[in-house]
Amino acid sequence: MVSATFRFYEELNDFLPSERRRQAFTCGCARAATVKHMIEALGVPHTEVELVLVNGESVDFTRQLRDGDRVAVYPRFEALDITPLLKVRPHPLRELRFIADAHLGGLANLLRMCGFDTLYDNHYEDSQIATLAAEQRRIVLSRDRELLKRRIVDHGCYVHALKPALQLRELFERLDLARSARPFSLCLHCNLLLHEIAAEQARPRLPPRIAALYSRFFACDACQRLYWEGSHWRSMRVLLAPLLDAPPA
Question: Quick one: the chain helix, strand, coil %, rounded to 5?
């Protein structure tokens, strides 16, 4: 048995019991324990971690702990480019493509509304989610810590909020999504890009009242759905305005 001192920073503290939050604490570790093993044994999914310093030196997850080590564990850095320091993975956690677990369908829909490529199917097994995330370099969104701890999951976010609108706000704040959002550019059903079509092409496929009221229409080539700037669109603009720091249109 060896002893190491840990200090977790910012939102990583949410995974710890109250007596260990925002302070250094010492605990025993198995003699062959790695950084990754101990971080997850303490309750923090490795997918939430972007930088680990042991005795002030950046290390990867496979570094074995030694007696007296001091371990500082950091989440994503939004304002700083720390690429030269990274050891736990080759690239920062900034590739903004997602896959949501079965309990986050509402959030997945809102992310698509914001223009973020988001896979979702409530029939996905955890193993499928982990495999797709690894193959397609997607960030796993989940409220299941065990899913986020899977070895092949490299990018992930534990979602704390319970309601979709609050979950969306949480992700915008944590991942600084406002700069990358492209609202109303994806089909909410297929997760594919929409394109504008001429009104004369759209109107024969619409109820007469809708065809008469609106002049701009967008189509999904996969599912053939049509979209227009109606009351639902206006409601979504109101929801997104404070996240994008823009007045609702």
Answer: 35, 20, 45
